[in-house]
Specification:
The chain is an alpha/beta fold. It contains 6 helices and 11 strands. The longest helix has 14 residues.
């Protein structure tokens, strides 16, 4: 996974260290030149000086090809601007943003490009797990008596299923599409329905894993 972290404070640096230790590619950017210089030799991430609120800086640090952008600065307004740029301008699949002031938590939603809000007081491990989870495909629930799982996968511009008809997708055995949610409304899963970025596909399966569903759509 390619990750860009804006904010090289304690939280951003610790997230970078954990992600690096688990094999992810990390770029850490901060406006404080001295802080960036201090971290050289201490953190194996790519380190950049710059203001991630500026599109040119996000472009330079690789936001266009990033799988995840984390806005981890100490200012909520800065984190919201970074999140909005990452999602709307660079179409980053997953954007996480730190909430410093609980009174501002209501702003940290998808209207501002935030997929995951990271409360400052939450345990670090929980923040990292939440931020890096592969949420384009998630098992929502298991119906034990029926022996089936309900799995959701979100279509993005990078999904292999984008622009393809449902009937042309090779679904795993024992799997059916229950509905496609488009613009908040459920749509009948006709075989000729062409999937678009922003669609959420709900599937029911008694055999397939999340990994197999992910491979079929993403």
């Amino acid at each position: 996974m390619k990750v860009v972290i804006a904010g090289a404070g304690r939280l951003g640096t610790r997230i970078a260290q954990v992600l690096l230790a688990t094999g992810h590619q990390v770029t850490l950017v901060d406006t404080d030149d001295d802080r960036v210089a201090e971290l050289r030799g201490q953190v194996a991430a790519d380190l950049m000086s710059g203001d991630a609120c500026e599109p040119a800086v996000l472009e330079h640090v690789g936001a266009r090809t990033a799988d995840l952008v984390v806005a981890a600065t100490g200012k909520d307004d800065t984190n919201l601007v970074i999140a909005l740029l990452a999602k709307r301008h660079f179409s980053v699949p997953r954007v996480a943003a730190r909430v410093n002031d609980d009174d501002n938590a209501w702003l940290f939603d998808r209207n501002w490009g935030v997929d995951i809000a990271l409360p400052a007081a939450a345990p670090l491990v929980s923040l990292i797990e939440e931020a890096t989870a592969a949420t384009d495909t998630v098992a929502l629930l298991r119906l034990s008596k029926a022996g089936v799982d309900v799995i959701e996968t979100a279509i993005t511009e990078r999904s292999r299923a984008a622009g393809r008809a449902l009937g042309d997708l090779p679904l795993p055995a024992g799997t059916v599409v229950a509905t496609v949610i488009r613009d908040g409304q459920p749509t009948a899963p006709a075989s000729g329905l062409v999937l678009q970025p922003g669609d959420e596909v709900l599937l029911v399966s008694h055999e397939a894993s999340e990994r197999e569903i992910h491979a079929a759509f993403q």
